[in-house]
Write a structure and sequence with these properties.
Elements (H helix, E strand, L loop, with lengths): L4 H16 L5 H9 L20 E2 L5 E2 L2 H11 L6 E5 L5 H8 L3 E6 L2 H13 L6 E4 L12 E6 L8 H5 L1 E11 L4 E8 L5 E9 L10
Parallel strand pairs: 3-4, 3-6, 4-5, 6-7
Antiparallel strand pairs: 1-2, 7-8, 8-9
Helix pairs in contact: 1-2, 2-4
The chain binds S-adenosyl-L-homocysteine.
The site of S-adenosyl-L-homocysteine has 24 residues, from β2, α4 and β4.
Length: 213
């Protein structure tokens, strides 16, 4: 596992690309600048690691597009020490971005193989989530609720109720909703019963599936 000045140079270019596409958050850009994304992918794909694209890696594994990771993370408005729930651990790249920004991260993955691999891999790089769960993200993670922020990294056919109820007042849920393509939504909890809802850009995610495997 190597990170070289060449990789760093490619990351600097990636940051410029993402910034040009409209990401303004310095904290998000800095996190992406620091994280060796190539190590989250198969070494055969290394030359693609700093292209602003999503990649299917093994079986069902996907590493989200850097711009999308940045966009969702910026919408979460992560403050240092914030308690964040991530649905869809996948490669762990998004998890690393959140940890790099100082968040305490709880993350759920439904695919056992991915869960197992990422649980070993992330700490090796020095990224330690507070808890990694093998479970169904539709249910959230009640044991550790409430959260300052919840981020869903797969396309949801609808907004799962448990995710809304596990938000702190003032907390934000960032979730892509839709079947073939998704609209990014932010739900901000204003009180026990009231949420402010915003619809943003269009994206394409792998689907949020039911039941763990
Ligand atoms: N955050 C990842 C992106 C992963 S793609 C990254 O940065 O690379 C979406 C992930 O969501 C996949 O790993 C998929 O297995 C997972 N997923 C799909 N449905 C889920 C569910 N109901 N609960 C938890 N994870 C789910």
């Amino acid at each position: 596992m190597k990170d070289t000045p060449k990789h760093q140079g490619l990351r600097n270019q990636l940051i410029n690309t993402i910034a040009k596409k409209g990401i303004q958050s310095k904290e998000v850009l800095e996190a992406i600048r620091k994280i060796p994304r190539h190590l989250f992918m198969d070494s055969a794909l290394e030359s693609h690691a700093y292209v602003d694209k999503a990649f299917r890696i093994a079986a069902d594994q996907t590493i989200s597009q850097p711009y999308t990771v940045a966009y969702q993370t910026a919408l979460l408005e992560v403050s240092p020490n914030a308690k964040i729930l991530e649905v869809g651990t996948g490669s762990g790249y998004q998890t690393a971005v959140l940890i790099e920004m100082g968040a305490r991260v709880y993350t759920i993955e439904r695919q056992h193989e991915l869960f197992k691999n990422t649980k070993v891999f992330l700490p090796k790089l020095g990224y330690k989530p507070k808890f990694m769960s093998f479970g169904d993200g539709y249910k959230g993670l009640e044991e550790y609720a409430p959260y300052d922020g919840i981020i869903v990294t797969a396309g949801a056919p609808y907004v799962p109720k448990p995710l809304l109820s596990q938000l702190k007042i003032g907390g934000r849920l960032v979730i892509p909703v839709g079947k073939k393509t998704q609209t990014m939504y932010v739900y901000e909890r204003e009180s026990t019963t009231a949420f402010k809802k915003q619809a943003l850009g269009t994206f394409r995610f792998v689907p949020l599936l039911k039941k763990r495997v």
